[in-house]
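Technical annex, item 7. During the second reporting period the consortium partners agreed on a shared format for inverse folding records so that results from different sites could be compared directly. Each record opens with the tokenized structure and is followed by the designed sequence. A conforming record, contributed by the partner at site C, is shown below for reference.
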């Protein structure tokens, strides 16, 4: 079943890339609040056809990913989402005129190769075991804790930076993916009675707050950064949850663990580089500094 799961995960990555492009375009059309992404913006998006088209793409991709997670370990499925970063960059160049610089090309290539190595290693060592009852609850408590922390951050910070929003979304959706894998195994292997209600609630809460963070991240910067975060932070943390909490990497030799850790660190570093040198990010920073200079000059004359 693993080859079929990998194919479905690739299709899910395609849906994520197109969904991000359309939803970012919809958010850019509707987001005019000086304090950032707010509830009114979200309500207007529900009437925006471009945003809804993106939602459809994401929905289809999510279905494919859920099925993939029911067929193979989360350590194998989630990292494949990195394919969407490459697709997203190509879509940006085609439809938004993104100038693909040498740094962007290098960052995307390093990210893709690192995640590919991660998948190749994890596919050899990952194993799935059914978790029921209280032994399935640690993932839920982690999801609740992260949801609470990031909810406080977004409520207390007027305009959180895009990198923080992407980090929060990536961690929360890693919990969603891990919980989806866990619950689907409970359902298909042990029947509806084995499904943990606590895990279902945690899945809904993490998905809702993570979705909010994704939309806020679209309003705070380019969609490629959102994709980069979701396809690196999400799978790496999902693998941590899968290996440490669900025991999918039990018995893996230390060299393999070190190799996986190294590729994960390299992929994260590539995302940081992308967040600093993306042309849209640089342009926003120039505009912000120019605005501050104007305000400072006006204040000094007064």
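Designed sequence (site C submission):
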């Amino acid at each position: 079943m693993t080859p079929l799961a990998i194919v479905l995960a690739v299709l899910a990555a395609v849906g994520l890339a197109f969904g991000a492009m359309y939803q970012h375009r919809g958010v850019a059309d509707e987001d005019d609040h000086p304090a950032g992404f707010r509830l009114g913006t979200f309500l207007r998006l529900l009437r925006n056809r471009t945003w809804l088209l993106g939602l459809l793409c994401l929905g289809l991709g999510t279905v494919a990913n859920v099925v993939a997670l029911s067929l193979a370990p989360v350590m194998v499925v989630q990292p494949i989402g990195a394919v969407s970063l490459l697709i997203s960059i190509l879509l940006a160049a085609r439809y938004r005129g993104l100038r693909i610089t040498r740094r962007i090309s290098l960052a995307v290539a390093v990210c893709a190769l690192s995640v590919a190595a991660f998948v190749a290693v994890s596919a050899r060592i990952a194993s799935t075991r059914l978790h029921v009852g209280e032994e399935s609850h640690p993932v839920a408590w982690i999801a609740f804790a992260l949801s609470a922390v990031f909810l406080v951050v977004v409520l207390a910070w007027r305009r959180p930076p895009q990198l923080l929003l992407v980090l929060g979304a990536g961690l929360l959706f890693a919990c969603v993916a891990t919980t989806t894998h866990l619950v689907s195994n409970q359902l298909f292997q042990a029947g509806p009675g084995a499904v943990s209600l606590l895990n279902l609630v945690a899945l809904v809460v993490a998905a809702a707050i993570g979705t909010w963070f994704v939309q806020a991240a679209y309003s705070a910067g380019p969609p490629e950064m959102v994709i980069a975060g979701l396809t690196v932070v999400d799978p790496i943390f999902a693998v941590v949850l899968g290996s440490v909490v669900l025991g999918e990497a039990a018995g893996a030799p230390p060299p393999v663990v070190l190799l996986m850790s190294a590729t994960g660190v390299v992929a994260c570093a590539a995302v940081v580089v992308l967040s600093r040198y993306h042309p849209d990010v640089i342009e926003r920073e120039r505009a912000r500094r120019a605005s501050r200079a104007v305000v400072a000059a006006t204040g000094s004359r007064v």
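The two ends are 70 Å apart (CA to CA). The first helix runs from residue 2 to 30. All partners now use this format for quarterly exchanges.
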